[in-house]
Amino acid sequence: MRVLANQVYSQVPIHSEYGGVVPEIAARAHLEKIDPIVRLALDEAGLTLDGVDQIAFTRGPGLLGPLLVGASFARALGRSIGKPVVGVNHLEGHLASAFLQDPALEPPFLCLVVSGGHTEFVQVDPGLAYTVIGKTRDDAAGEAFDKCGKVLGLGYPAGPILAQLAASGKRDFVPLPRALDQRDNFEFSFSGLKTAMLRYVESKPAEFIRNNLSHICASVESAIVDILVKKSINALFDTKMQTITVVGGVSANGYLRIRMEAEAKKRGFRALFPAPLYCGDNGAMIAAIGQWRANHGLVQSEVGVTPSLRWH
Question: How many domains does the chain have?
Fold first, then answer.
């Protein structure tokens, strides 16, 4: 499997003034940019539409407006060139980003999906049979990064800014909770961390927060990464898997990679992370899962299937 093109249009500048994603604005931006982005990708790959064998689109989960734009465009394109169209699960696309890093990767393996909207362990068996063995009860890890960063006044998106500041901070500066850290519990909870950070900031003078911002950010990052790594080790032991893939936007976090790879070396398991450009939402991962399924005879055309906000 080889990536010929991966064009990404970021809407961060559009939504930054609102402090978060505005669904109507997101849908409008999708509508305006989808055709130019497809054309740029074809140019980068050196292809015409006649050279495309299959079209994959994100069916869900996600915001309905952007999903409808993508689905409608993909179906119309498929009909115009007479090629099959397949609807892909967004989370399965993130899982496929590991195949982009290692095309020889084959199930079974354990996958930690960790992003702004999802934090869960998925056991991946042959034939891409999925079993969710644990997920968050409330906030996702990426959401915890962003909300704690917002409390600290870091702007939007706050998570990556928090991680940058954390690199030079003391990681035990603020005592923060690590929830559900029992040995046999594979669920997550980050709402308590968010509340603890809010109370901490409210209890300190603004000047203190400014002067110790890197230490506070490092404490937040450590609290999140500690629980992700600890639970990953326990889940690997319980499932008897030898490989864990870590995918989704938070998998780009440098401290998470350092900690997980150190534990892998120490304990003898394999930790596989996608390249950073494949960690966030991108078209290459959606194409990758479509291609993987085609290569293994698992593709069925889903032209008539409507997008789903909560498809899992």
Answer: 1
Separation of alpha carbons 121 and 262, rounded Å = 20
State both tokens at 162. Answer: 């928090």
- Peptide bond connecting 108 to the previous residue in cis, omega within 30 degrees of 0: yes
- What tokens does 25 get? 């604005």
Asked if the peptide bond before residue 36 counts as cis, ω within 30 degrees of 0, the response is no
Q: How many CB atoms lie within 10 A of CB 222?
A: 21
- Domain membership of residue 290 (yes or no) is no
What integer pLDDT is reported at residue 306 of this predicted model? Answer: 55
Query: Where do we find the tokens 């400014």?
Result: 210
Q: Domain with 126 in it: what CATH number?
A: 3.30.420.40
In a domain, 255, yes or no: yes
Confidence of residue 196 (pLDDT cuts 50, 70, 90): very high
Give CA–CA dist 92/113, Å, rounded: 10
Range of the structural domain that residue 165 is part of: 107-277
Confidence of residue 203 (pLDDT cuts 50, 70, 90): very high
pTM of the model: 0.89
